Amino acid sequence: MLPLVVLLVFHVSASWAASASVYDNFLQCLNTNTNPSSTQLSNIIYAQNNPSYSSVLRAYIRNSRFNTTSTPKPVLIVTPSAASHVQASVVCAKQLGIQLRIRSGGHDYEGLSYWSDQVFIVLDMFNLRSVTVDIEDSSVWVQAGATLGELYYRISEKSKIHGFPAGVCPTVGIGGHISGGGYGNMLRKFGLAVDNVLDAQIVDAKGRLLDRKAMGEDLFWAIKGGGGGSFGVIVAYKLKLVSVPETVTVFQAARTLEENATDFVSRWQEVAPTTDDGLFMRMLLQPGSNTVKATIIAEFLGNADQLVSLLGKQFPELGLKKEDCKEMSWIESVLWWDNYDNGTSPNVLLDRNPDHANFLKRKSDYVQTPISKSRLELLWKKMIEIGKIGLVFNPYGGMMSRIPASATPFPHRAGNLFKVQYSVSWGEAGAEAEKNYTTDTRRLFRFMTPFVSKNPRRAFLNYRDLDIGVNKFGNRSYEQGKVYGLKYFKDNFVRLVKVKAAVDPENFFRNEQSIPPNPSFHSQPPFSSLHLDVNEGSSSKLSMGKLKLVLVFLFVSFSFCI
Asked: How large a percentage of the chain has pLDDT more than 70?
């Protein structure tokens, strides 16, 4: 055991030494590239030997699959509190030749905002969380590190008849949610979050802070659904507020197979994408013991009488009665979707900490032709056989069908009836449990092939799924990127590549599923430009011997973890 203990001690010391060395050089670079301020820059950088490093890293890990001892860890975590810190961080990461991963809320399903198989720094945006609501202008400036809950709460402080069409999970970060598309329960009325973006601030690969006018319309278009992490660091978005009625109505209704769930789901496919634009009816399908439960979770932008009358005509099989409905304000409906009890104060939307983070796997699909009853029966059998995987059907139509597919990078508009999410979460740690659950998810995904979109089989960027393609950024980076790029963006992928070539030709901003650079550009190996001298000739310059030692330490620290 003694040699193993010695090896582990050496490993920890090597990892900390490498992190500390990068810390010193990064801090010096930040001081050089940041105007003097009241912020002590050393307080926003966490090396691996900092006692707070682990708690800061774990605070925004939302998928426990990427919170294990074997998960690669960043050499530094940088927590900017001003846009100038973001600018300097980009400049300094480039000078050090270290990859930058950007985290706003940590809800990337594959954890790409906080892990990498290369040496990397996490730029954690949680301190940049201001929300400035302007009711007279019907707009709001919101920084990337704010959460959806904080956005909704601040809007409700100023108005009871304004809202914003984004997601139902309050702890999701603004930066990732909106840059990846951003859908919610008002998408049939107002479109996606990206359809309601007026302006933005981004730090580009040169460290410049740009607004819409300065960045130009091509880059502005790209960061409205093309994923901000491919083009720069999103600092803030200016959003257009939408009008909501003083009263909205919600309800749930469920059927099992014994209660004719097949007819229930079949009719839902006809009604949900074509009904009044103000009605959103999500469908949950959950396998049980020899049955499947189908549950509608719905919100209507109007009162209960209007809703009951509407569905009495369009969906009589539902049998909806007024007593099945709950009338409330829009901000109360936000709490209802997150399963809070009636009467809960909206203050809970300011809570950034979920009860716990599960292990999870998600995948996505798009259905363009209703699934027949006979095929639904086959689906029920497969779901019961597998027994673990739930499906979520999110209806489109309405405004989603009226916005052109090329208006934003998000292409899944007219012709799509609903989006499918494959969902499984589990509590057991370990490789065996992960293999079992992810394998079963992929089995159900394969089974669904005849029922969903084709050529390409489409996917939703914000339901990140590395199964559909990974980019190694070697000589075939464009071809590898095209595999997942066409699924996420369809024809818009070509334009995104052109924007990438214009704003980040060296491919500094990248991850396993980022937009690849121009086909004629071949990225350098990840460590080819790694050097730790911020100012050549300065007293901080490292000798070649020390530099080689640091490089060895960096490789060791990412070969395995204890």
From this structure: 89
